[in-house]
């Protein structure tokens, strides 16, 4: 992993931490494909599509400016995270 990838991952993490109340966030990948795993109870009773929209919204300028090409998002509530990641 090079410095550019690390910087991009940190930038995405900071943006999402500021805009969303996330308990945990994991960002991996490079500008061609970013993978985001977000954990927060803000996702409780929210559909998967709406969860993705919540995460995309703060990143839209990075996407439209082609700083990020593709984004893969997986989101969990705290309870879902415990169940799926034993």
From TrEMBL:
InterPro entries: BolA (IPR002634), BolA-like_sf (IPR036065), BolA/IbaG_stress_morph_reg (IPR050961). Pfam families: BolA. SUPFAM superfamilies: BolA-like (SSF82657). Belongs to the BolA/IbaG family. It comes from Buchnera aphidicola. This is BolA family transcriptional regulator. It comes from the Bacteria. PANTHER family: ACID STRESS PROTEIN IBAG, BOLA TRANSCRIPTION REGULATOR.
């Amino acid at each position: 992993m090079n410095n550019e990838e690390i910087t991009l991952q940190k930038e995405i993490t900071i943006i999402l931490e500021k805009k969303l109340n996330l308990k945990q966030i994991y960002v991996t990948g490079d500008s061609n494909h970013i993978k985001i795993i977000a954990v927060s109870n803000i996702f409780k009773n929210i559909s998967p599509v709406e969860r993705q929209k919540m995460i995309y919204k703060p990143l839209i300028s990075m996407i439209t400016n082609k700083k990020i090409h593709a984004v893969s998002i997986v989101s969990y509530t705290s309870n879902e995270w415990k169940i799926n990641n034993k």
